[in-house]
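Hi L.,

You mentioned the student needs an example of a multi-chain input paired with its predicted structure. This one should do, with 587 residues in total across all chains.
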Amino acid sequence: MRRKWFLFFFRRSVSQRKGRVAIASAAVTLAVAVVTAMIGVTFGIREKLGTELKSYGANIIVSSDKGEGFDPSLTDRIRSIAEVEDVTGQVLGTVIINRQQLEVIGMDRGRAKEMGWRLTGRWPEKENEVIAGISLKAALNLKEGTAVSVSKDDNTREFIVSGFIEKGGTEDMAVIMSLKQAWSMYSGEGRLHTLLVRGRTGMIEQAAAKIRELLPDAEIKTVRQVAMAEEALLGKIQMLMLLVTIVVLTATSISVASTMGANVLERREEIGLMKALGASRSGISIFYLAESVLVGLSGGAAGLLVGAAAAQAVSKGAFNSYIGMPVYLPFISMIMGIAVALVSSWFPVQNAMKYDPAVILRGE
Amino acid sequence: MPFIELKNVIKEYRNTHALRGIDISIEKGQWLNLVGPSGSGKSTLLNIIGCLDSPTSGGIVIDGADISSFSEDEMAVFRREKTGFIFQQSHLIPYLSAVENVMLSQYFHSMADEKEAMEALTRVGLGHRLHHRPSQLSGGEQQRVCIARALINSPQILLADEPTGNLDRENTKNILELVKRLHEEEHFTIILVTHDPFVAQWGQRVLTMEDGRIKCDEFLCRL
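Structure written out for the whole complex:
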């Protein structure tokens, strides 16, 4: 019942100050939109960057020192002990195609799709299909569906090229085939020449150390350049995001605080009257703080929509695709909106509670 | 034992002595008018008795409670439970109707009750203006709403600071007659500040103040 009357007087109060509430909400909307867009884009960049960097390969490369290769089950063992994002194995070798010695990479077909390579044509589906690097297409005058004869020593097999990949590295001059196909070309069936490990950002050295413990005879290299570039870039993006967030939230807080300050000043007489009627500090404060919560909720919701739309627009421009927003983003945006509005109005409201009703009601 | 008792009450604002040692006793149900020139300390005294302000020193006992050492929260509770205020300016909330302004006082006291608020306004002669906003009411009508708002929670003390200061003679008389009628019916104590000799005649006692002191304390035969 008391809540009903609180809401009644609150509604009346807010409806009288639609303009001020709208201005404060607009300020919160702006802040939440910018920060939401920043989080969305950063999250998206991280995701996209991860995909892009994956196309440059792993950040830990494990090769067999004695040339004996690794058992494929090692990939699962490394994944469990080193807590890494991904482990895959490759068979590397050379073959003869059209009398030219070319590199062949045998890898899991599913993994190949996840590498983020640009593909022309389609991924191999049949047992005799392979993909070729884009540079081979011109060098060997290949087309989608062209049959190529691949030889290793006395072993010659025929494969159909289903598509071409473009990475900008040595893979562009290689034939990429499945592990099964590669093993069929080589005598060392069932062994992997190289293990490609993708360690978590910031945990690469620790993961390498754990792998070293597991495989003391293997040659383990961290791709420091890739790893460091990735970490440095993400770090810079996060720092930029933090700085922009601080600047925007500070500017918004000042704006909301001045709006609320003006609002409270305008209502000095009302506050004095409430005090004379015996209202407690908390009883009066709750009216103003509820107004701030309303500003925060409306600004947070509007900011979330605007920010998410802006993040998608940025992603579309930068990556030519939309990004997936983190599921916690709506929660963060709403909390941020309410927090900015509450913190900004806290001091003006507390200041108003110090008004001397006797002085105000005398009209001084 | 007097209902209100002040002993050597002093109020200082920086270098200004608003009250210079006030000693008075007020019986329950008495109508006391405080008169005196501007700056004599009458409004300060009213505010201190109404717990809107606290004294620099001195003792104030009201209904057995020593209010001179009350905290801010205790003062708020005292105002809520024991007092009703009427000011020179009506101080009605402009976006609330007459009945809603009265209900706001109920809300801060305990529970808003529209029916009770409407009855209170009817008692002060505003049964036909219940849903009018303050801007749609005359000065006299606004003061009537203030009286209804001040008395809706059945306070023991009605504190009025120049309640007719903005009204013409006819409206002043009407308001004072209304207050007199309600006083006779409900027997609350009235402390009323005025500088108008016409208003000062209404009531049972007149306390004349000058320069923060009581200059004259006289009981009237009227009423």
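You could point out the following to them. Residues 123 and 148 of chain B are 8 Å apart (CA to CA). The first strand of chain B starts at residue 4 and ends at 13.

Best wishes,
N.
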